[in-house]
């Protein structure tokens, strides 16, 4: 039997009348769809990863001044454990010496959402910069934590655990020095707490953070 005869209208109608026709058809569609999705993912994965790397580089450069490093921040990392989580630390080196570090902290936002925050800290434990990279706070209220929405996030620049004193690390409503937002105190309160926690992480791990990668590896084993 030729291929043309198999594809004739009569034979095609007989195939459609068989009980397993729809099962075979659905299987073929599912197989084709899966192949298309896999192929698309394979073709775009490299471009997506490159874009994420570029976005990360831009963010790191916002919290680590260019004059503090001559290395590629995204390629100079170490990992430390902070309680139950692992923290990826980006080291800013100049002439081989670590001048500053950058890492991510998290804060609980409004409605139990999570805010992701990148902060840069110099060798002396002073904040070089803070940026909120992801959040789900209320537009027009809590989103003032974004640099493009207001200058509020810049209020951390130059601060340390001793400036202000620990008891003043809070929003003004709680007796602290940092402004809160009208109608949205939860968000800035959480960010202040997270940044303070990030400075405490630096203080607790300063020796390892400013050491060579080999020393840090030995310290966390």
UniProtKB/TrEMBL annotation:
The keyword Transcription regulation does not apply. Pfam families: FMN_bind. The modification FMN phosphoryl threonine is found at residue 185. It is found in: Cell inner membrane. The chain crosses the membrane at residues 20-43. It comes from the Bacteria. It is a single-pass membrane protein. Its EC number is 7.-.-.-. SMART domains: FMN_bind. Keywords: Cell inner membrane, Cell membrane, Electron transport, Flavoprotein, FMN, Membrane, Phosphoprotein, Translocase, Transmembrane, Transmembrane helix, Transport. GO terms for molecular function: electron transfer activity; FMN binding. GO terms for biological process: electron transport chain. GO terms for cellular component: plasma membrane. Its cofactor is FMN. Its main location: membrane. It is an enzyme of class 7 (translocase). InterPro entries: FMN-bd, Ion_transpt_RnfG/RsxG. Residues 109-202 form the FMN-binding domain. The complex is composed of six subunits: RnfA, RnfB, RnfC, RnfD, RnfE and RnfG. Belongs to the RnfG family. PANTHER family: ION-TRANSLOCATING OXIDOREDUCTASE COMPLEX SUBUNIT G. Part of a membrane-bound complex that couples electron transfer with translocation of ions across the membrane. HAMAP family: RsxG_RnfG (MF_00479). This is Ion-translocating oxidoreductase complex subunit G. It comes from Candidatus Contendobacter odensis Run_B_J11. The lineage of its organism: Bacteria, Pseudomonadati, Pseudomonadota, Gammaproteobacteria, Candidatus Competibacteraceae.
């Amino acid at each position: 039997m030729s291929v043309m005869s198999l594809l004739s209208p009569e034979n095609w109608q007989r195939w459609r009348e068989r009980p397993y026709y729809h099962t075979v058809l659905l299987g073929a569609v599912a197989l084709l769809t899966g192949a298309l999705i896999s192929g698309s993912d394979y073709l775009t994965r490299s471009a997506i990863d490159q874009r994420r790397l570029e976005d990360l580089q831009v963010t790191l450069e916002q919290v680590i001044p260019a004059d503090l490093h001559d290395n590629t921040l995204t390629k100079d990392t170490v990992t430390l454990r902070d309680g139950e989580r692992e923290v990826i630390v980006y080291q800013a080196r100049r002439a081989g010496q670590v001048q500053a570090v950058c890492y991510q902290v998290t804060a609980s936002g409004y409605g139990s959402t999570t805010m992701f925050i990148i902060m840069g800290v110099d060798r002396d434990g002073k904040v070089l910069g803070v940026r909120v990279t992801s959040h789900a706070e209320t537009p027009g209220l809590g989103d003032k934590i974004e640099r493009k929405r207001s200058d509020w996030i810049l209020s951390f620049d130059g601060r340390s655990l001793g400036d202000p004193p620990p008891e003043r690390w809070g929003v003004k409503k709680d007796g602290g020095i940092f402004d809160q937002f009208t109608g949205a105190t939860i968000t800035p309160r959480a960010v202040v707490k997270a940044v303070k926690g990030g400075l405490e992480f630096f203080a607790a791990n300063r020796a390892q953070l400013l050491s060579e990668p080999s020393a840090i590896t030995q310290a966390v084993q």
